[in-house]
Design brief:
316 residues, 12 helices, MetI-like fold
């Protein structure tokens, strides 16, 4: 109970810091968010939009009052209004978040299975050497955006095997026949990039943990007692490196979400990364603020889940 209470207090403090950063950071940037509204557009068809914007953000009021209003709106699930989309930020993020979570979730699942399996196999072999992991180390050194652009040039433009951009074909809708297959087809290249970028870190970490645990006295005693190799690997080695792997996956999952944003920008994939690119290019402060809050909160939730799992496993 004490650990649980401490964990709640810790993550509560983190959440408060995230809220403060998401609110004050755009206001520290030069210029006012209102100034980026195109006056010509506003004078033609958007007369009501600046009033809606001012009503939500109340720029004429003190920042302390603005912050309280901001918290009040957040409790209602309202993240404000986008300057470029002329829509609620929550709706725009909700439409993009699903693509990002699908891409990051599949990438982490596949890369974890492959990385843990390969790292353990390499670490369990007699006379295993880190040289075996050298190709993975080289792959890890390649920036994710460079890997994405290289695969796009090769498989999309040179070989024409996969589409170079988007999440589905033009003219396709969720109600269209074959929409799901079309989405999966467009996801092949971005997903491959994410998997290739995540496998090296997981595999190298698993290899090092396996080699270290394999040298422990209790594992040597299990070998001396002539226990089967299957029991030694599962109950003595894998069970002891599992908390370390979960700790690594906690960090790797957050970096995977961040890496997804770069991949989405390269492939024009309609996820959070592409939305952030649009918001940055148009100086859409409310949208940037909403994306920052969403991504940071998501990272906080991921970290909390893995920490809880590690605590539960460590108690057994």
């Amino acid at each position: 109970m004490k650990r649980g209470g401490k964990m709640v207090r810790t993550y509560g403090l983190y959440l408060v810091l995230i809220l403060c950063i998401s609110f004050f950071l755009p206001r520290f940037l030069p210029g006012s968010p209102l100034s980026v509204l195109d006056e010509a557009t506003a004078s033609q068809n958007m007369e009501a939009f600046p009033d809606t914007f001012r009503e939500y953000y109340a720029p004429e009021k003190p920042e302390a009052v603005q912050f309280l209003l901001y918290l009040k709106h957040l409790l209602c699930g309202d993240l404000g209004y986008s300057l470029t989309g002329k829509r609620k930020v929550a709706d725009m993020i909700g439409e993009s978040l699903g693509y990002s979570l699908l891409l990051a979730g599949l990438a982490m699942t596949v890369s974890t299975c492959i990385g843990v399996w390969y790292g353990m196999r390499a670490g369990l072999k007699e006379g295993s050497s880190p040289v075996r992991l050298f190709p993975l180390i080289l792959l890890q050194a390649v920036p994710v955006f460079l890997l994405a652009e290289s695969l796009r040039l090769l498989f999309s433009y040179r070989l024409s095997w996969f589409p170079p951009r988007g999440a589905y074909s033009v003219g396709m809708y969720p109600s269209s026949e074959g929409f799901l297959l079309d989405v999966l087809y467009h996801m092949v290249l971005p997903l491959t990039v994410m998997i290739l970028s995540e496998i090296p870190g997981i595999a190298v970490f698993t290899y090092n943990s396996t080699v270290r645990i394999k040298k422990q006295q209790f594992v040597r005693m299990a070998v001396y007692l002539n226990l089967t190799q299957n029991i030694i690997e599962k109950k003595y080695i894998f069970r002891n490196i599992l908390p370390e792997i979960l700790g690594k996956l906690s960090i790797q999952s957050i970096s995977c979400v961040a890496g997804t944003m770069f991949v989405e920008a390269v492939f024009a994939y309609p996820g959070i990364g592409m939305l952030l690119r649009t918001a940055t290019a148009n100086r859409d402060y409310p949208l940037m603020q909403g994306i920052l809050l969403t991504v940071c909160t998501l990272a906080l939730v991921i970290n909390a889940i893995f920490e809880f799992l590690i605590q539960q496993i460590s108690r057994r």
